[in-house]
Amino acid sequence: MAAELKGFVLINRDEVAACGRQLGFDLYTVSLDDVGADPHPFCRKGQAMDSVLAAMDERLLAKFYIRRQALQSYYADMEASLSGLLEDPQVSVGQKSQVLHRCANNVLKDVYDDPRSGENLARTKDITENIIKFTMGSEGSVPGLLRLSSHDYYTFTHCVNVSVFGVGLMERIDSLSRDDLYDFALGCILHDVGKTEVADAILNKPGRLTDEEFEVIKSHPMEGYALMEDKLPPIALDVILHHHEKFDGSGYPHGLDEKNISDYSRVAAIADVYDALTTNRPYADARDPFKALTLMKQKMVGHFEQQKFMSFVEFLSTS
Ligand SMILES: [Fe+2]
Ligand SMILES: [Fe+2]
Q1: Which residue, among 132, 104, 107, 95, has the nearest Cα to 18 in the 3D structure?
Q2: DSSP 8-state symbol, 68
């Protein structure tokens, strides 16, 4: 859904199809002959999905919209149907990737808006479960998700990206149990949750940070750990607390060295830095993948475990 029109949001057929057996919102349309006109009612909330999709298929030269106010119920329907959709052999991997990615971004936006909400955390755990189910069960799922990574930085899009890069690399190098992989993915998804405790003026400052401001940013792993301490399993907490530790001991918050950084945090650190470098930030434009990897190899000597970094390069080149 990219374009908006006077309180309406564009929606495509695949997205409507992902919302269950009945339409959970009113659907509007504009014919392509009539560009600029207001969308008019097309299908009503409650209509059977099969007949909605058939009607959409008959109108090839049209765009479809939902009202902006209906977005929340639309996302709720999509989230509720997600698990069944991922198991449906009739649905393509590309379509599953798109719906999962959209749901993940929406859930993460909510949990990063309000990480103390039990409901948001429960939805985050559900979406993580679905990411694991999809990436472990479908050929081509990781590349499908990687293609959708956004290059515009928001904390929540960054965290979706880090979980996809992290899970992809972890699946390649380690034969973790499903439970451990889930706990690791949950840590990746929530790795920057402590940034919700840092003022936006510092987080989004376009210029150089002062030493004091940088110290505030550096508090986010500890803040995240404190927020989630009694709510998440140890592997997820380890990733939240240690994703900024560096192999040579120069990281934070604890200055751990290679002997003391877990495999989980090593992988998360690589995924985190790579995504940050390939995304547009308030203070730097996105680099292309090759430049980002070169910079990580040449200018960040000592930050990462070399073997895992090389596996990451391989993973990206074959995904
Ligand atoms: Fe971080
Ligand atoms: Fe991060």
Answers
A1: 95
A2: G
pLDDT at 280 over 60: yes
* Amino acid 14: pLDDT: 80
CA dihedral 110, 112, 113, 119 (to 10 degrees): 50
Q: Are residues 113 and 60 in the same domain?
A: no
Ligand having the closest approach to the CA of 277: 2
| Nearest ligand by distance to the CA of 221 | 1
For residue 31, is pLDDT > 90? no
For strands 4-5 and 8-11, give the pairing.
antiparallel
Beta carbons within 8 Å of 208's beta carbon, 6+ residues apart:
283
Q: What is the pLDDT of residue 3?
A: 52
Residues 260 and 145 in one domain: yes
- 151-171 confidence digits (pLDDT tens): 766 788 889 899 999 999 999
Distance of CA 239 from the midpoint of ligand 1 (Å): 10
Ligand with smallest separation from the Cα of 158: 2
Give the distance (Å) from ligand 1 centre to CA of residue 244: 6
- Do 212 and 294 lie in one domain? The reply is yes
